[in-house]
């Protein structure tokens, strides 16, 4: 039986299904605009930090408000980033399916969405956590959009080093959301994420070197080549390990955290050395993504230990 009447008018059921399909596509596009996989990584650092700040389980109201506000804040920053980088995204193969490239969302729709998330996240954090956390959230959005995306990304090979500061904010937002203040352990964790970011992102830029070169983005792998990326990843991996150990005396971390910091840190450093060795030998396949995935696992293990350690008696 035809889905249309003899006069060419679409049946209500079919029209409704098509409308629901359009709504679903739009909803998926808005979610994609927030870069949810990036936000997952940010929450991996924020949530355990809140447990450390509280010395155990944080107040549920502050926890939920900080996580929700942080999620919306990061989504806002990522949406602004996609708006500003849509010309790059059209060139790079791995980003050509983003909603502003495909036309699923218009720039106006994306701007309204990004500003809405920014305002709502600030209010959620300010009203239900505290205004220090809200101010840090605004600073994170501003830094990611104005400093990294607009100023550094297209101008310097050190873009990800200083631009990565934006990714450090979730730990201080999480700490402030619980305590209403910032203490030395929060700044050590902030520094850890800062040092970890280049060792995490530069291997990814090796994998997509041709994309960045085509888009005229001066990532280190484009400007300096694989051996230089390898040695820099080693330096930042060692610095990350040292930073995790500094937290032990400052925050009074126990056996669980201390053991994981040493073992996981040694493993991450070994992976970094392996990348450099393959690069200087001139191997065509340096397995950069192996180090990228290792960096994700490493940071997850460290912050799981950060969150669990305060709950243990040793």
Describe the protein.
The protein has 314 residues and is an all-alpha fold. 77% of the residues lie in helices and 0% in strands. It is built from 15 helices and no strands. Helix 3 packs parallel to helix 7 (131-152) and helix 13 runs antiparallel to helix 14. The longest helix has 26 residues, at 226-251. The protein is globular and about 65 Å long. It starts with 11 loop residues before the first helix and ends in a 6-residue tail after the last helix. The relative contact order is 0.11.
Low-confidence stretches: none
Strand content: under 5%
Distance between the termini: 72 Å
Secondary structure tally: strands: 0
Mean pLDDT: 92
Give the biggest beta sheet: none
Basic shape = globular
The DSSP helix count reads 15
Work out the helicity level.
over 70%
Order of helices and strands: HHHHHHHHHHHHHHH
The Cα radius of gyration reads 22 Å
Structural class: mainly alpha
Attribute tags:
single chain, 314 residues, mainly alpha, 15 helices, globular
Short note summarizing the structure:
The protein is mainly alpha-helical and 314 residues long.
Please write out the topology:
Layout: H1 12-33, H2 36-54, H3 60-84, H4 86-91, H5 99-102, H6 107-128, H7 131-152, H8 159-163, H9 169-179, H10 184-207, H11 209-214, H12 220-223, H13 226-251, H14 255-280, H15 288-308
């Amino acid at each position: 039986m035809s889905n249309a009447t003899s006069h060419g008018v679409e049946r209500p059921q079919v029209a409704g299904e098509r409308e629901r399909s359009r709504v679903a596509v739009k909803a998926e596009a808005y979610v994609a605009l927030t870069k949810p996989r990036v936000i997952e990584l940010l929450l991996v650092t924020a949530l355990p930090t809140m447990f450390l700040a509280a010395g155990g389980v944080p107040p549920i109201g502050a926890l939920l408000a900080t996580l929700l506000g942080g999620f919306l804040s990061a989504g806002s920053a990522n949406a602004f980033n996609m708006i500003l980088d849509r010309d790059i995204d059209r060139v790079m193969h791995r980003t050509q399916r983003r909603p502003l490239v495909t036309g699923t969302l218009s720039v106006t729709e994306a701007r309204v969405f990004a500003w809405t998330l920014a305002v709502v996240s600030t209010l959620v954090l300010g009203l239900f956590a505290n205004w220090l956390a809200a101010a840090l959230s605004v600073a994170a959005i501003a830094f990611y959009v104005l400093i990294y995306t607009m100023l550094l990304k297209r101008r310097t090979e050190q873009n990800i080093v200083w631009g990565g500061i934006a990714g450090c904010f979730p730990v201080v937002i999480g700490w402030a959301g619980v305590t209403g203040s910032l203490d030395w352990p929060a700044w050590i964790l902030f520094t850890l994420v800062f040092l970890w970011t280049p060792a995490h992102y530069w291997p990814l830029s090796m994998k997509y070197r041709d994309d960045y070169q085509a888009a005229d983005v001066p990532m280190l792998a484009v400007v300096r080549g694989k051996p230089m990326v390898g040695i820099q990843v080693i330096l930042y991996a060692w610095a990350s390990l040292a930073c995790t150990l500094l937290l032990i005396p400052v925050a009074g971390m126990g056996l669980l955290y201390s053991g994981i910091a040493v073992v996981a840190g040694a493993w991450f450093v070994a992976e970094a050395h392996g990348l450099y060795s393959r690069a200087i030998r001139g191997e065509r396949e340096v397995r950069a993504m192996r180090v990228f995935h290792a960096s994700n696992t490493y940071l997850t293990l460290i912050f799981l230990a950060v969150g669990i350690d305060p709950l243990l008696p040793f």
